[in-house]
Design a protein that fits this description.
The structure holds two protein chains of two kinds.
Chain A: E1 4-7, E2 10-14, E3 19-25, E4 31-37, E5 43-49, E6 55-58, E7 61-66, E8 71-76, E9 85-93, E10 96-99, E11 103-108
Parallel strand pairs in A: 2-11
Antiparallel strand pairs in A: 1-3, 3-8, 4-5, 4-9, 6-7, 7-8, 9-10, 9-11
Chain B: E1 4-7, E2 10-13, E3 19-25, E4 32-38, E5 44-51, E6 57-58, E7 67-73, E8 76-81, E9 90-97, E10 110-112, E11 116-120
Parallel strand pairs in B: 2-11
Antiparallel strand pairs in B: 1-3, 3-8, 4-5, 4-9, 5-6, 7-8, 9-10, 9-11
Classes of the chains: A mainly beta, B mainly beta.
Chain lengths: ~110, ~120
């Protein structure tokens, strides 16, 4: 059974600070996704990472993928309050998605 | 981007009744749709894979007789929670897989519906 683990589960950080969320998965994967979920809402797609060494950036968020280490990171630069949400990584293998445990991020003014 | 809708967005029902949730892909055809369940402050758990024109594939531990899935057309999948009980209260999210080649290499991207919040009293 494929396992997808995120670290940390909860993150409280001050505005302006940097931090990284880690996503480890247990088997080979076609691609890796990062999503954002606001309370009571569905998922918003942030990034799709397709190959080893892939790096994508959007605003204050940057995602990377190391398929050899089975690790993806989501780096937050100079956090702002609007980034407060729960972030999920998801691994796509074959026809299915497996979601990580989620990281609940709170950015404190 | 592609849009997936769900209906209803919220439903409250009495214990023992059945509830049907619809998932539609609005601007693309989806041979495969997925149903997830999410409990408060937890991750999404895949319940089943819905295949157009054939039986759904259920994940281990999901009762197929309780969660009936029908994928009768390329744009519609339904999840029926039969004889619902309070423990079935959850946030149900569907996704649809866009099989078209998008040029950016993101073939087969999944698009998620807005979710259906079910409360069983």
């Amino acid at each position: 059974e494929l396992k997808v683990e995120q670290n940390p589960l909860f993150l409280s950080m001050q505005e302006g600070k940097n931090y990284t969320i880690y996503c480890n998965y247990s088997t080979t994967s076609d691609r890796l996704y990062w999503y954002r979920q606001d309370p009571g809402k569905s998922l918003e797609s942030l990034f799709v990472l397709l190959s080893n060494g892939a790096v994508k950036q959007e605003g204050r968020l940057m995602a990377s993928l190391d398929t050899k280490a089975r690790l993806s990171t989501l780096h937050i630069t100079a956090a702002v309050h609007d980034l407060s949400a729960t972030y999920f990584c998801a691994v796509n293998t074959g026809n299915q998605f497996y979601f990580g445990t989620g990281t609940s991020l709170t950015v404190i003014p | 981007g592609a849009v997936v809708s769900q209906h209803p967005s919220r439903v409250i029902c009495k214990s023992g009744t059945s509830v049907k949730i619809e998932c539609r892909s609005l601007d693309f055809q989806a041979t495969t749709m997925f149903w997830y369940r999410q409990f408060p402050k937890q991750s999404l758990m895949l319940m089943a894979t819905s295949n157009e024109g054939s039986k759904a594939t259920y994940e281990q531990g999901v009762e197929k007789d309780k969660f009936l899935i029908n994928h009768a057309s390329l744009t519609l999948s339904t999840l029926t929670v039969t004889s619902a009980h309070p423990e079935d209260s959850s946030f149900y999210i569907c996704s649809a897989r866009d099989q078209r080649w998008l040029g950016t290499g993101e073939r087969g991207t999944q698009y998620f519906g807005p979710g259906t919040r079910l409360l069983v009293l």
